[in-house]
């Protein structure tokens, strides 16, 4: 089994809770597909909408062109270290939870910590919490987008590699599950019978 290993480091100051110091908040180890080689690289973009205190979309763009980064913090055009700071109560901790929400989808780790408290923003009528991640692995860009009504209630998932669709479905739009992977032809694609993330489903059957 090969692994896709993604590392994202967050250094938050001003009253950082102990749970944010847990290794899984700094090292997101994601097992996805067997055709991925063991690699350790970086998150280059993240956004979340309708999550806890974030009614509107909030994003973290780590491309070096957007900031005057110290050269020691830049690797292959992206910052591989980020400092998040602010006053108490502005949402640093919840932003950390949002970034690591992907762990709930793809592993069975840290669910008690990551699912704690209210999940969806209370001020919006939109029932879907939306996440978007972009990772750079050597010369490839992996984009993973998903929406949920709760920590483990997925509405849609899209996985693209270099702008080519690998996995896609949307329950809200009655969009069927499509898996563009060799060897996935015989997988059950009835999305109503797959309560977990499709990526996790594929990994468990690999």
Largest sheet: 9 strands, mixed
Total number of domains: 1
What gyration radius follows from the Cα positions, in whole Å?
17 Å
Low-confidence spans: pLDDT under 50, at least 5 residues? Answer: 1-40
What is the beta-strand fraction?
Answer: 25-35%
Helix content: 10-25%
Element string (H = helix, E = strand): EEEEEEEEHHHEEEEEH
List the helices and strands and how they pair.
Blueprint lengths: L3 E4 L2 E3 L16 E2 L8 E11 L8 E4 L12 E2 L2 E2 L2 E3 L7 H8 L2 H5 L4 H4 L14 E9 L2 E11 L2 E9 L2 E7 L4 E5 L18 H8 L1
Parallel strand pairs: 1-4, 2-8
Antiparallel strand pairs: 1-3, 4-5, 4-9, 6-7, 9-10, 10-11, 11-12, 12-13
Could you please describe the fold and organization of this structure?
The protein has one domain. It is 12% helix and 35% strand. The chain has four helices and 13 strands. Strand 11 (153-161) and strand 12 (164-170) form a beta hairpin. It is globular. Mean pLDDT is 76; it is low at 1-40.
């Amino acid at each position: 089994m090969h692994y896709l290993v993604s590392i994202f480091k967050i250094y938050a100051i001003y009253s950082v809770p102990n749970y944010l110091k847990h290794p899984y908040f700094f090292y997101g180890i994601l097992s996805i597909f067997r055709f991925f080689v063991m690699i350790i690289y970086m998150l280059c973009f993240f956004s979340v909408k309708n999550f806890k205190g974030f009614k509107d979309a909030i994003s973290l763009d780590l491309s070096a062109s957007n900031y005057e980064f110290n050269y020691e913090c830049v690797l292959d055009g992206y910052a591989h270290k980020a400092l998040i700071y602010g006053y108490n109560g502005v949402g640093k901790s919840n932003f950390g939870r949002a970034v690591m929400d992907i762990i709930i989808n793809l592993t069975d780790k840290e669910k008690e910590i990551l699912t704690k408290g209210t999940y969806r923003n209370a001020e919006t009528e939109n029932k879907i919490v939306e996440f978007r991640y972009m990772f750079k692995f050597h010369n490839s860009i992996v984009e993973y987008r998903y929406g949920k009504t709760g920590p483990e209630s997925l509405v849609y998932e899209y996985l693209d590699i270099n702008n080519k669709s690998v996995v896609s479905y949307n329950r809200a739009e009655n969009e069927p599950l499509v898996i563009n992977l060799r060897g996935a032809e015989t997988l059950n694609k009835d999305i109503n019978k797959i309560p977990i993330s499709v990526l996790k489903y594929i990994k468990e059957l690999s």
